[in-house]
Protein backbone atom coordinates (compact mmCIF):
# COMPACT_ATOMS: atom_id res chain seq x y z
CA UNK A 1 0.00 0.00 0.00
CA UNK A 2 1.38 3.41 -0.97
CA UNK A 3 1.96 6.09 1.61
CA UNK A 4 -0.95 8.20 0.27
CA UNK A 5 -3.31 5.23 0.29
CA UNK A 6 -2.23 4.32 3.83
CA UNK A 7 -2.78 7.92 4.95
CA UNK A 8 -6.21 8.01 3.31
CA UNK A 9 -7.12 4.78 5.08
CA UNK A 10 -6.08 6.24 8.45
CA UNK A 11 -8.09 9.40 7.82
CA UNK A 12 -11.19 7.37 6.91
CA UNK A 13 -10.81 5.36 10.11
CA UNK A 14 -10.46 8.57 12.09
CA UNK A 15 -13.57 9.95 10.41
CA UNK A 16 -15.60 6.80 11.04
CA UNK A 17 -14.43 5.98 14.58
CA UNK A 18 -13.95 9.43 16.09
CA UNK A 19 -16.02 10.40 19.13
CA UNK A 20 -16.12 13.92 17.72
CA UNK A 21 -19.07 14.83 15.51
CA UNK A 22 -17.74 15.77 12.07
CA UNK A 23 -19.76 17.59 9.40
CA UNK A 24 -18.70 18.68 5.90
CA UNK A 25 -20.47 21.74 4.44
CA UNK A 26 -20.33 23.46 1.10
CA UNK A 27 -20.07 27.21 0.69
CA UNK A 28 -23.89 27.63 0.88
CA UNK A 29 -24.13 25.74 4.19
CA UNK A 30 -25.48 22.47 2.84
CA UNK A 31 -24.28 19.26 4.50
CA UNK A 32 -22.11 17.16 2.17
CA UNK A 33 -21.38 14.37 4.65
CA UNK A 34 -21.27 13.56 8.35
CA UNK A 35 -19.78 10.76 10.42
CA UNK A 36 -21.68 8.35 12.69
CA UNK A 37 -20.87 10.41 15.80
CA UNK A 38 -22.61 13.38 14.17
CA UNK A 39 -25.63 11.29 13.19
CA UNK A 40 -26.03 9.99 16.75
CA UNK A 41 -26.52 13.44 18.26
CA UNK A 42 -29.16 14.61 15.79
CA UNK A 43 -32.90 14.28 16.16
CA UNK A 44 -34.54 12.40 13.28
CA UNK A 45 -36.16 15.43 11.61
CA UNK A 46 -32.92 17.45 11.79
CA UNK A 47 -30.95 14.55 10.33
CA UNK A 48 -33.44 14.18 7.47
CA UNK A 49 -33.28 17.89 6.67
CA UNK A 50 -29.48 17.77 6.63
CA UNK A 51 -29.27 14.71 4.40
CA UNK A 52 -31.86 16.31 2.11
CA UNK A 53 -29.40 19.16 1.62
CA UNK A 54 -31.51 21.91 3.19
CA UNK A 55 -29.44 25.03 3.79
CA UNK A 56 -29.35 26.07 7.43
CA UNK A 57 -30.69 22.73 8.68
CA UNK A 58 -28.05 22.74 11.38
CA UNK A 59 -29.81 25.70 12.99
CA UNK A 60 -32.61 23.31 14.01
CA UNK A 61 -30.18 21.62 16.42
CA UNK A 62 -27.91 24.52 17.35
CA UNK A 63 -28.96 26.60 20.37
CA UNK A 64 -26.30 29.26 19.94
CA UNK A 65 -22.65 29.77 20.72
CA UNK A 66 -20.78 31.68 23.42
CA UNK A 67 -19.39 35.00 22.26
CA UNK A 68 -17.31 37.58 24.12
CA UNK A 69 -20.54 39.45 24.86
CA UNK A 70 -23.16 36.75 25.53
CA UNK A 71 -23.25 33.17 26.85
CA UNK A 72 -25.69 32.17 24.10
CA UNK A 73 -26.12 34.03 20.83
CA UNK A 74 -26.77 33.53 17.11
CA UNK A 75 -25.44 36.97 16.16
CA UNK A 76 -22.56 36.65 13.64
CA UNK A 77 -23.16 32.88 13.50
CA UNK A 78 -20.08 30.73 12.96
CA UNK A 79 -21.73 29.45 9.75
CA UNK A 80 -22.54 32.89 8.38
CA UNK A 81 -19.15 33.68 6.85
CA UNK A 82 -17.95 30.86 4.53
CA UNK A 83 -14.45 32.37 4.35
CA UNK A 84 -13.87 32.57 8.11
CA UNK A 85 -12.08 29.79 10.01
CA UNK A 86 -12.63 29.58 13.77
CA UNK A 87 -10.26 27.25 15.59
CA UNK A 88 -12.22 26.96 18.84
CA UNK A 89 -15.49 28.21 20.25
CA UNK A 90 -18.16 27.00 22.67
CA UNK A 91 -21.52 26.02 21.21
CA UNK A 92 -24.67 24.29 22.46
CA UNK A 93 -26.64 21.60 20.59
CA UNK A 94 -30.03 20.08 21.35
CA UNK A 95 -29.12 16.42 21.05
CA UNK A 96 -31.11 13.21 20.67
CA UNK A 97 -32.05 11.82 24.07
CA UNK A 98 -29.66 14.03 26.08
CA UNK A 99 -31.07 17.51 25.76
CA UNK A 100 -28.89 20.59 25.33
CA UNK A 101 -25.18 19.70 25.52
CA UNK A 102 -22.14 22.03 25.52
CA UNK A 103 -19.54 21.41 22.82
CA UNK A 104 -16.20 22.79 21.80
CA UNK A 105 -16.54 23.59 18.12
CA UNK A 106 -14.12 24.35 15.32
CA UNK A 107 -14.79 25.19 11.68
CA UNK A 108 -12.17 25.25 8.96
CA UNK A 109 -12.00 25.46 5.17
CA UNK A 110 -10.34 22.35 3.72
CA UNK A 111 -10.89 23.09 0.03
CA UNK A 112 -10.79 26.76 -0.94
CA UNK A 113 -11.70 26.07 -4.56
CA UNK A 114 -15.02 24.41 -3.73
CA UNK A 115 -15.48 26.23 -0.41
CA UNK A 116 -15.81 22.93 1.48
CA UNK A 117 -15.55 23.30 5.22
CA UNK A 118 -15.27 20.81 8.06
CA UNK A 119 -17.19 21.46 11.28
CA UNK A 120 -16.16 19.41 14.35
CA UNK A 121 -17.83 19.16 17.77
CA UNK A 122 -16.27 17.77 20.95
CA UNK A 123 -18.57 17.00 23.90
CA UNK A 124 -17.64 19.16 26.93
CA UNK A 125 -20.07 17.56 29.41
CA UNK A 126 -17.36 15.75 31.41
CA UNK A 127 -15.07 18.79 31.42
CA UNK A 128 -17.92 21.02 32.61
CA UNK A 129 -18.80 18.53 35.34
CA UNK A 130 -15.18 18.37 36.50
CA UNK A 131 -14.90 22.16 36.44
CA UNK A 132 -18.16 22.51 38.38
CA UNK A 133 -16.97 20.06 41.03
CA UNK A 134 -13.68 21.92 41.29
CA UNK A 135 -15.48 25.26 41.62
CA UNK A 136 -17.77 23.84 44.31
CA UNK A 137 -14.78 22.47 46.19
CA UNK A 138 -12.94 25.80 45.98
CA UNK A 139 -16.07 27.66 47.07
CA UNK A 140 -16.56 25.29 50.00
CA UNK A 141 -12.92 25.80 51.02
CA UNK A 142 -13.38 29.57 50.96
CA UNK A 143 -16.62 29.35 52.97
CA UNK A 144 -15.09 27.09 55.62
CA UNK A 145 -11.95 29.24 55.81
CA UNK A 146 -14.13 32.33 56.26
CA UNK A 147 -16.09 30.52 59.00
CA UNK A 148 -12.91 29.49 60.80
CA UNK A 149 -11.42 32.99 60.52
CA UNK A 150 -14.62 34.50 61.94
CA UNK A 151 -14.70 31.91 64.72
CA UNK A 152 -11.10 32.76 65.53
CA UNK A 153 -11.90 36.47 65.68
CA UNK A 154 -14.95 35.98 67.92
CA UNK A 155 -13.06 33.49 70.08
CA UNK A 156 -10.23 35.92 70.74
CA UNK A 157 -12.72 38.73 71.35
CA UNK A 158 -14.50 36.61 73.96
CA UNK A 159 -11.24 35.59 75.60
CA UNK A 160 -9.35 38.87 75.46
CA UNK A 161 -12.23 41.30 76.00
CA UNK A 162 -15.43 39.83 77.41
CA UNK A 163 -13.75 37.31 79.72
CA UNK A 164 -11.29 39.90 81.00
CA UNK A 165 -14.07 42.38 81.73
CA UNK A 166 -15.97 39.63 83.53
CA UNK A 167 -12.89 38.76 85.57
CA UNK A 168 -12.41 42.41 86.50
CA UNK A 169 -16.04 42.58 87.71
CA UNK A 170 -15.48 39.44 89.80
CA UNK A 171 -12.45 41.02 91.48
CA UNK A 172 -14.49 44.13 92.32
CA UNK A 173 -17.28 41.96 93.67
CA UNK A 174 -14.94 39.96 95.89
CA UNK A 175 -13.68 43.18 97.46
CA UNK A 176 -17.23 43.81 98.73
CA UNK A 177 -17.09 40.60 100.78
CA UNK A 178 -14.40 42.08 102.99
CA UNK A 179 -16.23 45.35 103.57
CA UNK A 180 -18.54 46.02 106.46
CA UNK A 181 -21.86 45.05 104.86
CA UNK A 182 -24.99 43.39 106.18
CA UNK A 183 -25.36 39.59 106.10
CA UNK A 184 -28.21 39.54 103.56
CA UNK A 185 -26.19 41.80 101.23
CA UNK A 186 -23.15 39.55 101.68
CA UNK A 187 -25.26 36.50 100.82
CA UNK A 188 -26.46 38.18 97.63
CA UNK A 189 -22.88 39.13 96.74
CA UNK A 190 -21.80 35.51 97.10
CA UNK A 191 -24.70 34.34 94.93
CA UNK A 192 -23.82 36.89 92.27
CA UNK A 193 -20.17 35.87 92.46
CA UNK A 194 -21.15 32.22 91.84
CA UNK A 195 -23.30 33.21 88.87
CA UNK A 196 -20.50 35.28 87.36
CA UNK A 197 -18.02 32.42 87.85
CA UNK A 198 -20.30 30.02 86.00
CA UNK A 199 -20.85 32.59 83.25
CA UNK A 200 -17.09 33.12 82.98
CA UNK A 201 -16.54 29.39 82.60
CA UNK A 202 -19.24 29.27 79.89
CA UNK A 203 -17.60 32.16 78.02
CA UNK A 204 -14.19 30.51 78.20
CA UNK A 205 -15.63 27.22 76.94
CA UNK A 206 -17.51 28.98 74.14
CA UNK A 207 -14.26 30.69 73.16
CA UNK A 208 -12.47 27.34 72.97
CA UNK A 209 -15.31 25.66 71.08
CA UNK A 210 -15.42 28.45 68.51
CA UNK A 211 -11.71 28.11 67.80
CA UNK A 212 -9.24 26.64 70.33
CA UNK A 213 -6.14 28.82 70.54
CA UNK A 214 -4.11 25.69 71.29
CA UNK A 215 -4.91 24.34 67.81
CA UNK A 216 -3.22 27.33 66.17
CA UNK A 217 -0.44 27.70 68.73
CA UNK A 218 0.45 24.14 69.68
CA UNK A 219 -1.26 21.81 67.19
CA UNK A 220 -3.62 18.85 67.16
CA UNK A 221 -2.31 16.90 70.14
CA UNK A 222 -2.57 19.82 72.57
CA UNK A 223 -5.99 20.87 71.22
CA UNK A 224 -7.32 17.32 71.58
CA UNK A 225 -6.00 16.96 75.13
CA UNK A 226 -7.69 20.21 76.17
CA UNK A 227 -10.98 19.28 74.53
CA UNK A 228 -11.05 15.72 75.89
CA UNK A 229 -10.26 16.95 79.40
CA UNK A 230 -13.20 19.35 79.22
CA UNK A 231 -15.52 16.60 77.91
CA UNK A 232 -14.54 14.28 80.77
CA UNK A 233 -14.94 17.01 83.39
CA UNK A 234 -18.37 18.13 82.19
CA UNK A 235 -19.93 14.92 80.84
CA UNK A 236 -17.98 12.09 82.45
CA UNK A 237 -17.04 10.59 79.07
CA UNK A 238 -13.52 9.18 79.36
CA UNK A 239 -11.56 9.44 76.11
CA UNK A 240 -8.49 7.25 75.88
CA UNK A 241 -6.27 9.36 73.65
CA UNK A 242 -3.27 7.79 71.88
CA UNK A 243 -1.29 10.46 69.98
CA UNK A 244 1.70 9.22 67.98
CA UNK A 245 2.78 12.39 66.18
CA UNK A 246 5.83 13.36 68.25
CA UNK A 247 4.88 17.07 68.31
CA UNK A 248 4.51 17.28 64.53
CA UNK A 249 2.55 20.08 62.90
CA UNK A 250 0.61 20.11 59.64
CA UNK A 251 -0.95 22.66 57.31
CA UNK A 252 -3.55 24.76 59.09
CA UNK A 253 -6.34 23.49 56.83
CA UNK A 254 -5.49 19.84 57.57
CA UNK A 255 -5.30 20.40 61.33
CA UNK A 256 -8.63 22.23 61.29
CA UNK A 257 -10.36 19.44 59.33
CA UNK A 258 -9.00 16.68 61.60
CA UNK A 259 -9.96 18.60 64.74
CA UNK A 260 -13.51 19.41 63.55
CA UNK A 261 -14.19 15.85 62.41
CA UNK A 262 -13.02 14.45 65.75
CA UNK A 263 -15.02 17.09 67.61
CA UNK A 264 -18.18 16.09 65.69
CA UNK A 265 -17.55 12.37 66.20
CA UNK A 266 -17.07 12.78 69.96
CA UNK A 267 -20.19 14.94 70.14
CA UNK A 268 -22.23 12.28 68.32
CA UNK A 269 -20.94 9.53 70.62
CA UNK A 270 -21.70 11.68 73.63
CA UNK A 271 -25.22 12.36 72.44
CA UNK A 272 -26.30 9.05 70.94
CA UNK A 273 -23.91 6.16 71.66
CA UNK A 274 -24.64 5.87 75.40
CA UNK A 275 -21.04 5.04 76.33
CA UNK A 276 -18.79 5.94 79.26
CA UNK A 277 -15.53 5.75 77.34
CA UNK A 278 -14.12 5.76 73.83
CA UNK A 279 -10.77 5.57 72.06
CA UNK A 280 -9.14 8.21 69.85
CA UNK A 281 -5.90 7.44 68.06
CA UNK A 282 -3.89 9.93 66.00
CA UNK A 283 -0.93 8.71 63.98
CA UNK A 284 0.95 9.00 60.68
CA UNK A 285 2.06 6.25 58.29
CA UNK A 286 3.43 6.33 54.75
CA UNK A 287 2.62 9.94 53.99
CA UNK A 288 -0.88 9.94 55.47
CA UNK A 289 -2.28 11.30 58.72
CA UNK A 290 -4.80 8.97 60.35
CA UNK A 291 -7.51 9.64 62.91
CA UNK A 292 -9.24 6.61 64.43
CA UNK A 293 -12.26 6.99 66.72
CA UNK A 294 -13.83 3.90 68.32
CA UNK A 295 -16.77 3.45 70.68
CA UNK A 296 -18.64 0.33 71.76
CA UNK A 297 -21.98 2.06 72.05
CA UNK A 298 -25.42 1.61 70.49
CA UNK A 299 -24.24 2.13 66.94
CA UNK A 300 -26.61 2.99 64.10
CA UNK A 301 -27.71 1.72 60.71
CA UNK A 302 -25.46 3.24 58.04
CA UNK A 303 -28.18 2.96 55.37
CA UNK A 304 -30.34 5.27 57.46
CA UNK A 305 -29.76 8.74 56.03
CA UNK A 306 -30.63 10.36 59.34
CA UNK A 307 -29.56 8.02 62.17
CA UNK A 308 -31.05 9.69 65.27
CA UNK A 309 -30.25 13.13 63.93
CA UNK A 310 -26.58 12.44 63.11
CA UNK A 311 -27.05 12.53 59.34
CA UNK A 312 -26.06 16.15 58.89
CA UNK A 313 -23.03 15.69 61.14
CA UNK A 314 -21.78 12.71 59.12
CA UNK A 315 -22.42 14.56 55.85
CA UNK A 316 -20.47 17.56 57.19
CA UNK A 317 -17.57 15.33 58.23
CA UNK A 318 -17.37 13.76 54.78
CA UNK A 319 -17.51 17.17 53.11
CA UNK A 320 -14.66 18.47 55.27
CA UNK A 321 -12.58 15.35 54.59
CA UNK A 322 -12.94 15.85 50.82
CA UNK A 323 -11.61 19.40 51.11
CA UNK A 324 -8.16 18.05 52.04
CA UNK A 325 -8.42 15.04 49.69
CA UNK A 326 -9.08 12.85 52.70
CA UNK A 327 -11.10 9.67 52.95
CA UNK A 328 -13.64 9.12 55.73
CA UNK A 329 -14.70 5.55 56.52
CA UNK A 330 -17.53 4.78 58.95
CA UNK A 331 -18.36 1.29 60.20
CA UNK A 332 -21.35 0.86 62.48
CA UNK A 333 -24.42 -1.23 63.16
CA UNK A 334 -27.17 -1.47 65.72
CA UNK A 335 -25.57 -2.76 68.91
CA UNK A 336 -22.12 -3.02 67.29
CA UNK A 337 -20.60 0.33 68.21
CA UNK A 338 -19.03 2.75 65.75
CA UNK A 339 -15.60 3.07 64.14
CA UNK A 340 -14.67 6.26 62.29
CA UNK A 341 -11.43 6.47 60.37
CA UNK A 342 -10.07 9.53 58.61
CA UNK A 343 -7.07 9.25 56.27
CA UNK A 344 -5.54 12.49 54.99
CA UNK A 345 -2.53 12.61 52.62
CA UNK A 346 0.22 14.89 53.90
CA UNK A 347 2.73 15.88 51.24
CA UNK A 348 5.86 16.10 53.38
CA UNK A 349 4.65 14.46 56.56
CA UNK A 350 4.40 16.63 59.63
CA UNK A 351 6.78 19.40 60.64
CA UNK A 352 8.48 19.32 63.98
CA UNK A 353 7.03 21.89 66.35
Please give the domain count: 3
Structural class computed from helices and strand pairing: alpha+beta
State the low-pLDDT regions, or none.
none
* CATH fold title of the largest domain: Heat Shock Protein 90
CATH architecture of the largest domain: 2-Layer Sandwich
Question: Strand-and-helix sequence, N→C?
Answer: HEEHHEEEEHHHHEEHEEHEEE
Number of strands: 13
**Could you name the CATH homologous superfamily of the largest domain?**
Histidine kinase-like ATPase, C-terminal domain
CATH class of the largest domain: Alpha Beta
Structural Rg: 33 Å
What characterizes the major β-sheet? 6 strands, antiparallel
Q: Which tags fit this structure?
A:
6-stranded antiparallel sheet; about 45% helix; about 25% strand; Beta-Lactamase; alpha+beta; about 350 residues; elongated; Heat Shock Protein 90; 5-stranded mixed sheet
Element layout with pairings:
Blueprint: H1 3-17, E1 21-25, E2 31-34, H2 36-41, H3 44-51, E3 62-65, E4 86-95, E5 99-111, E6 116-123, H4 125-177, H5 183-210, H6 213-217, H7 220-235, E7 238-244, E8 248-249, H8 252-273, E9 277-285, E10 288-295, H9 311-323, E11 327-332, E12 338-345, E13 351-352
Parallel strand pairs: 7-9
Antiparallel strand pairs: 1-2, 1-6, 3-4, 4-5, 5-6, 8-13, 9-10, 10-12, 11-12
Helix pairs in contact: 4-5, 7-8, 8-9
Amino acid sequence: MSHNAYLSDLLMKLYGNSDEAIFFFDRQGKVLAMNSAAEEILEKDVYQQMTAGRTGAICKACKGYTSSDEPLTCVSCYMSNPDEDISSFQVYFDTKGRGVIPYSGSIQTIDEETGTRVFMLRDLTDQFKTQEELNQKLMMKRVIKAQEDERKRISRELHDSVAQEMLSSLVDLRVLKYMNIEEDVLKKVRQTEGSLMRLLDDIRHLSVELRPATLDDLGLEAAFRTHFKWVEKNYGLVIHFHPELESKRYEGEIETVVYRICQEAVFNALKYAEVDEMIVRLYETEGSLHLLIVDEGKGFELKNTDPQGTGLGIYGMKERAELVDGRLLIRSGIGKGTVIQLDVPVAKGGNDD
